[in-house]
Amino acid sequence: MKSSSFARALKTGVNSLLLHKLRSLLTTLGVLFGTASVISMLAIGEGASYEAQEQIKQLGSQNVILRSIKPPEDPNQGERTSRVIVYGLKDEDLKRIEETFPAVKQVVPIRQLHKEMSFRNRAMAARVQATRPLYQELTGRVVWEGRFITQEDERTLNTVCVLGTEVARYLFPLETSLGKRVKVGGDYFKVVGTLAPRVRLSDDPAVPGEDLTGEVFLPYETARKWYGKLQVKRRAGGRDMEEVDLHEIIIEVDHPENVTVVASAAREMLSRFHQKKDYEVVVPLELLLRAERTKEIFNIVLGSIAGISLLVGGIGIMNVMLATVTERTREIGIRRALGAKRRHIVMQFLVETVCLSVGGGLVGVAVGLLIPYIVQEAADMPTIVTPTAPILAFGISAGVGVLFGIYPAWRAADMDPVEALRHE
Amino acid sequence: MNRAVAELIEVERIYRMGAEKVHALDRVSFRVERGEYWSVMGASGSGKSTLLNVMGCLDRPTKGSYRLAERDTGVMDDDELSELRSRKLGFIFQSYNLIPQLDVLENIMVPLFYQDEPPVDGLERAESLARRTGLADRMRHKPSELSGGQQQRVAIARALVNDPELILADEATGNLDSQTAEEILDLFDELWREGKTLVFVTHETHVAARASHVLRMRDGQIEEIEVRERAKEIQGRPATEATC
């Protein structure tokens, strides 16, 4: 009998709500937008941090990366047509790390050369990186075709290269690049492999010169032999010459706990041997932790804003329900006279409030799932709807209904039947 | 002596109006027996409404005791009183007091909804009562689509649906024109002849003329109780159980 009395309360509640369609609709809007904003804000926040975290993860969370930075130009040197700037990480730095650092598993040096890649009549500027075979393992890059650089290449100074996706796609739009001889600057190298793309790649082929995302890998020793340390860059009115031993050193730490130790050791060592700050230390783990913290704060801020709008929605419902209770005082009196117990009256009004908030919540979930989709399509921002978000939002909206329904329902049930019957 | 349906013993009801105490009921004692048709008369402010509220378990006496259907209402809590209302009492009001969003049948069934164990044949009961009160072709209409007389018929059907021990009517014909009022009063007569117990609050003498007992109130006290000729009709009835 309990279930049938609930069904009747539900029917009565829905009927009373339908009696004032516009009022009910307007009342639910608060909860509707509250729920929708909880879901969409969490989705947008999640999406924004996901991309950043993925990029950091690709750097390797157990790695410490040292990079050379060109120091700010010395104003005393004045305008000269050509000069040689010496900066950055030294071979000695690499040696010191390899020989004295504890907790280091592997160390990989990288030299970068700005060369033009060409094959027959197609050419593009590329970021040519000379590195050791371990690089692939350390950065978790995936070989698409062929192989990566090997120890054998290093030992015998093979003139081989591995192409990144953009370069392979641009130079070889129709055929496989494997086994072809491509020109790196002025010299021919044989393509032995290509790498899978890092992040999701747009379908268009890379436009040369637009940015230097096109990567090419050469064996470290081969590049050293062929190109030396000096690089020449043409600029308006003259040439810049740079002498950089190493552009990047990737240190793999044996255990995640030791990452910060190694990072601080590297910072200390570099500051001792470099007068100018011509280097930076990048710790992906620290970045990741910082990104996670940022995401947490972001989520809390967004969540509170959305939560406040839900609260406001709930107060709106309570306000309307209090007005409804006053308006229906006489009905309450009649029902009490005919034998309704207090709990029947509480149930009747609570059901109405919960109907309003759950109805608003359901539509709000639908709208909340739609908004991230629209944002993604229209603003090209990644959004991620985690399954907990709609459940959480819906649960809160239903809870808001019960919470803000209790007081009006209690007010209704607590009326003196005689007074209520006499009402207007 | 017949079984007492309602029994008031030294009932007092005192309202506080600021510092002043108002005796709405002052040591009222009487008993309504099964099958009687009581009419309560008096000027406004004489305590009729308060008396009806106490008899309808909507209000509690400040002092004294009220027994309904041989149970002491003084010891009951709010839920028990509500259950008693839904099982033992039928209310008929001056302004009909139907629930606007419910149709005729639903309105008739309202008292059943609130019983702890509602009867399964509620709908059949409501339908047969609607037919009996001349609402056969109005069962699915809303109160706003009915005339005053029809609305009062719905209210009477509602008061009968739980087969009550006592029917309480408060100026039940007050809002009706004289012809409709007569029809409604005829219906009450019919119910009384079937053995129902009625208490009818009114200030019109021609309405009170139909009752078996007339109770006159003044300033919260019983002025007189008049037992009329019609009371003899009750004695001859086979339906009533004699306990004396």
How would the blueprint of this fold be written?
The complex is a heterodimer of chains A (424) and B (244).
Chain A: H1 2-19, H2 21-58, E1 63-68, E2 82-86, H3 91-100, E3 104-119, E4 122-131, H4 134-139, E5 143-146, H5 151-156, E6 160-163, H6 165-171, E7 181-184, E8 187-195, E9 215-219, H7 220-227, E10 230-235, E11 238-243, E12 248-253, H8 259-273, E13 279-282, H9 284-327, H10 329-337, H11 342-379, H12 388-413, H13 417-422
Parallel strand pairs in A: 2-11, 4-9, 6-8
Antiparallel strand pairs in A: 1-12, 1-13, 3-4, 3-7, 3-12, 5-8, 6-9, 7-8, 10-11
Helix pairs in contact in A: 1-11, 2-9, 2-11, 2-12, 9-11, 9-12, 11-12
Chain B: E1 4-17, E2 20-33, E3 37-42, H1 48-55, E4 63-68, E5 71-72, H2 78-88, E6 89-92, H3 104-113, H4 122-132, H5 148-160, E7 166-170, H6 178-193, E8 198-201, H7 205-208, E9 213-218, E10 221-227, H8 231-235
Parallel strand pairs in B: 3-8, 3-9, 6-7, 7-8
Antiparallel strand pairs in B: 1-2, 1-4, 4-5, 9-10
Helix pairs in contact in B: 3-4, 3-5, 4-5
